[in-house]
Amino acid sequence: MAASPHSPNSTFRRLRGQHSPAEFAAMVRRAAKEIDETVSCDARYIGRVESGEIRCPNYAYERVFLHMFPGRTLADLGFSPRETVRGRLAQREQISPFSPFTQRSNPLSSSRFKESDVLRRAFMAGGSATVAAATIGLTLLGDTRRLPSRAGEAEADAVEDAVRQIRLLDDRHGADALYRRASEPLRTAYALLDAGATRQSTEDRLHAGAGELAISVGWLAHDSGRFDDARSHYAEALATARVSGDAGLEAHAFSNMAFLARDCGRPRESVRAAQAGRRAARSLGSPRLLSLLALREAGGWAGLADRKACEEALARAHTEFSRGAAGADPEWMSFFGEAELESLESRCWAALGEHARAARHARRAADLQDPHFARNVALYTAELADNLAHAGAPDEASWAGGRVLDLLAEVQSTRIQSMLAATARTLVPHQRSPRVGAFLTRHASA
Fold it and tell me: What's the pTM value of the predicted model, to 2 decimals?
């Protein structure tokens, strides 16, 4: 049966079997190479398919999926007929996968119709980001009043789904509208941990899921400028990792702590956290994770104005990145591709005062980024605008700043807004330029 437009693609989820989304995405990429097809599949794409957001794949993915599952049709894989997803309705669903008219089953919720009614009111109140925020607390984990006495597989699934959906929403909308609501499933996840599980394997999944959820909520706090809250959530995730002996979760927590320390103006702490993450990640078999941690370390060294150490860390990052993706790459790292590498290197050169060089990397980051990740496109373009402004190219900076303002109609991120405000201040001496003046006027009104 093809998946309903209003339900997750459970058929595709069953076909993934015991493979993680990242492992399955790697299988898709390998299958594509076998038939000389090109797809940039990652764990988040698999999540979008399984959530029902992608009702029918594009033709390239169709060829790959039919190659992977010979003898089956798209309908056998849980997809809707292509002709039913064309037109304006399909476009709207692609833009807003968590539509207020979408009813999703929830193993911990007593009524799908209550959810639909709340979402409909949220939609009428305003904006897709508002809908997204309302969705999190209602569809993923319910509340602590309906918890079972012992957690089972359904509860572990719900925690993991909460992490995936929060990441999907953040990619599309940014953190500001999501943070408060995302705290609710986090409290529920830790209440489930406290209740205990029916099996050790389930408890291990709950530990990992709760830790990843704490990092996701911490990131929402981080991106919306709530640094103290972010630090608390990251520390909670690190403690969960240490209790459960989860090296992957520990490395993830240290990666985010290094990022936060850099943003808080504590570069030496950033270096130490990145190095601690690298020690935790050594045995995991993921060169891409080691690459990201080297970039976190490079950012710390740049903040300390230690160019030699920064360049050494950047060289390690490129070496590890060149080794390619691996089956051991964590699911949360699906955001880390060439675009993110370029962006993180751009920030290093900016911190070292080489803004023209930083602008080149930021431009490549914005060009390489998949448009689906609207928040990251806005971020990289904001970095480009700021570096151009400091590099003596005010008109180009104003053009990039205007592009960010376009994107901020959909993305809500205090971090990006703060970056753009700083760029506007840098451009004030050039306000007699028509393009600069137009940007400054538009920014002030926004």
Answer: 0.69
